[in-house]
Amino acid sequence: MSDLHLDNNVLVALQDVMEDEYPVLLDTFLADSDERLRSLQHALQAADAQALRLAAHSFKGSCSNMGAPLLAGLCKQLEEAARREQLDAAPGLIEQVEREFAIVRILFRAERQRYR
């Protein structure tokens, strides 16, 4: 299942580059992602398509860099909806992003446990 949600090749490359700091990277991504989810919700509540687009774009890049392709893809869909100012699609997309992140969070926490 984790192969669907995380790209192991990316994780191996990150481990090679980050070495002992790899667990810190995982922790930082998880904390940063919680903040990004809040930003998505705030932009939606404010009906601010530009802020939503920027938040989704930023989250997409972070997810892509961390090897979470499904999550990155959902963020891309949300970014595109915001770019077209289709805010009616945003609640459902944000819900999908949150659900996928919940899975990614579990997988990254498990990954993090390997380095305790």
UniProtKB/TrEMBL annotation:
It holds the Pfam family Hpt. GO terms for biological process: phosphorelay signal transduction system. The modification Phosphohistidine is found at residue 57. InterPro entries: HPT_dom_sf (IPR036641), Sig_transdc_His_kin_Hpt_dom (IPR008207). Keywords: Phosphoprotein, Two-component regulatory system. One of its GO terms (molecular function) is protein kinase activity. SUPFAM superfamilies: Histidine-containing phosphotransfer domain, HPT domain (SSF47226). PROSITE patterns: HPT. Residues 18-111 form the HPt domain. This is Hpt domain-containing protein. It comes from Aquipseudomonas guryensis. The lineage of its organism: Bacteria, Pseudomonadati, Pseudomonadota, Gammaproteobacteria, Pseudomonadales.
